[in-house]
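User: Show me an example of a complex going from sequences to structure tokens.

Assistant: Sure. Here are the input components:
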Amino acid sequence: MPSADAAAPALTAEDELPRGGRRFLRELLRSPKGLTGFVLVLAVLLIALFAPLIATNDPAEQVITHRFLPPVWAEGGKWSHPLGGDNLGRDIFSRMVHGTRISVVVALIVISVIVVFGTAVGLASGYFGRLVDSILMRIVDFQLSFPFILLALLLLAILGKSFWTLVLALSVAFWVNIARLVRGETMRIRSLEFVQAARGIGVPEWRIIAGHILPNTLPALVVLATLDVAVIVLAEAAMSFLGLGIQPPTPSWGTMISDGRNYLYEAPWMTLAPGLGIMLTAIGINLLGDFLRDTYDPRMARR
Amino acid sequence: MAAAAPLLIVDGLRKDFPMRRRGLGAMFAGRRFVHAVNGVSFAVGHEETFAIVGESGSGKSTTGRMIARLIEPTAGTIAFDGADWLALRGRALRQARRQVQMMFQNPFNSLDPRWPVERIVAEPLVAHKMVPANRLRERVVDLLSSVGLGAQHLQRYPHQFSGGQRQRIGLARALASEPRLLVADEPVSALDVSVQAQVLTLLREIRRKHRLGMVFISHDLSVVRYISDRVGIMYLGELVEIGHTAEVFRQPRHPYTAALLASAPRPEPGRRGTRIALKGEIPSPMNLPPGCPFHPRCPVAEARCTREKPPIAENPPGRSVACHYPERAADVLGRALSARAAPVPP
Amino acid sequence: MEALLTVTDLVTEFATARGPLRAVDGASIEVGKGETVGLVGESGCGKTALGLSLLRLIEPPGRVAGGSIRLEGDDLLAKSDAEMRRLRGRKLSMIFQDPTSTLNPVVSIGKQIAELARTHRGTSRREARRLAIEMLGAVGIPSPAQRYNAYPHELSGGMQQRVIIACALLLGPQLVVADEPTTALDVTVQGQILDLLARLASGKSGTAVVLISHDLGVVAETCARVYVMYCGKVVESGPTERLLAEPLHPYTQGLLASIPKIDGNERALQAIPGTVADPLSPPTGCRFNPRCPHVMARCRTEAPKLRNQGGRAVACHLYA
């Protein structure tokens, strides 16, 4: 009779950790870095979601008497406009809050597009190799050789300034890194024996890619995507600052910084508020991304 | 072994891997190849275990993968159950793959770390729609218990198991598709000795119970002696000796076989003082020596061996050797076993 | 035989999320001058941890938590890091399993050997080079003067291991710890390397070797005495010949019975039932008790002590 193992011995600490959501929460609570990042990101998301409830004033409304109104803690400030007014008398606080929406929406759309597209390209390139890989990678190389700003300007010149042009420009710039990462992971995973076993079993290729390869690229992908979000937020702000992105009167942190540029002495808070917002958002996302990598990178998981 | 036609007939199998030439050389020189497998022929009966033994560079793993069609041969034929195995393509191939399943060496990489055991073992059943969905779990539990695991393991993940248990899971998966031939590529090499014994015993029993043919690839002679009926010894991509395992080990007819037998460490008293039977190292498969590939290291080589490559000849029936002087192999073994450690080669 | 190295009740533990893991839990060994001693066991038995502890190479989260290691009477555990650094290479050295990760890939092999002489002895560059070439020749590297400038990746596994042996023996240490030195090599090369090690160690220097291996066959061919380890403890020891001819401890017996024989017989292999215990929560009493065919009530509560039995030692209640 085959000798039976009565019970699988608990050889690693891993098997005590529940998988998925509960593990995430447990690790999160143990990590100050992760917790900070998570709280910041959650705050941004909630502000974006409930913007009209939080900031009741119309961000586009220009009130002449509120021009350069100081923030509430300075002399002459008002509680109804906690961050004061900008050069056109618009409520900065309200613009900040509504600007969050822009950043979040742009970031989410762009990240969704590039993850889907970049992963598809990376999987195809990594799995099928040879000709497909050559063609796709040449496209990637070609694109990487274009500086981002130049690319953005080109698209804007052709398509005109608009929200969707911005989304397109950012997507085109950022999909390549995802594609390269997924390609590398796919190539590594493809040579692992469980993939060979699946081929040997007679599993159709699409099933191998969907069931084996894709799920195993997820840890690395999630980490990269999270960190990319921070970069996208910054890139959007930069584009808007340069006047290439979001157009007035829609509030965006980038445009706000641009607007405040000329009034740094009279009303520094015009620039500082959105600047701080961008900084905190980027820090939050980066911390969260670092935490995810620490938790989910199998090479670092054994502690 | 069997009166009926053999289950697997391999004839003249070759595999060349192209070498990438870098720099200017690539423009002028022709393509160079690594001749990983250089014309290999053997047969495996329906309920027989045929072992392929070799060291690194022998081509044994590549041969195994070609039989499982994970790598496509450069030349040669494979007949499986009488039909042309290599002619199958696409959908027909995928369906026919059920018949030949593989077991891998590395217990860590041969199972998807993100799949629970139930899904891993069910993979062949699902891919070939062998069992209706409501009977799937039942069948998986059956398979697991045949390898000494149980229903309590269904939802666990590979990292929660030991190496030996993972090999059992791999075996259960291989058996799921009800194959006729199992290709086991060093399945116990990564396991501790006591676990190895468990898995080997299991393999032997499974093979007998399910009436499988098995190609067992290994570098470990004692394991091969235990598990196989017949054996083929490979060196630098070629088979140098084939025959019944017990006989080949008792009376080798190729100097390389004799050297392997002599070098194999045995945990027995009276073995102090290592015996060196072979000098030098295995040459690179890119630069195959002329004549007999073994001659540079052969303790009984003659001038003829450097010029003329010995063909593999069957003599007597059931026993094949590729050597000009097969009667000298016994000498090599005898000499090696009684000699004290020889000086280090210059 | 005068003892060169005496290890007494060594405890080496690693801090894990689930508490301290005692890789070595009270092990004692002795090595005489110029003697080759084997340390045998399966994975997780603590043999590698013991080997690393001898050279004080255990890094946090691991540490040597108890016992003593005396080299010619000198307590190695009491030494400072600087003192240990001076000792390593000169009096003590180690050979690891994987040559590719031991050798520096961007420095030529000759230079790596020469550096040792220059660092430890302050030898001149020219003299160090001469010594290195001589050593390369001694370990069987063909055309040593030309191969001085070769890089590790240009050599085969067996050749790389020879270079490592050269490094380990260059300064004539008194003790070499070899951790699975031939496991990664082909069997026909394995014999060459083991023989080389034996010859060089027994030669002019009279170096003692602690050979760590999971392979009883390798130990049978090279070691005069052997220690068998299980779950962090030494369960049996003695002269190799006698231990193999007549194993006393049920674990040793089980191990030998589970190894297939080349000369073969048709009996079924007798595998040791069950699996190795979880080192974080080992069984009470004798650690082998759940798997032992001769288990008694006493075995489950009381851990047996290592008792001497005429030149041999065994930790088992059967012999109490």
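The lines above are the inputs; the final block is the predicted structure for all three components together. The radius of gyration of chain C is 21 Å.
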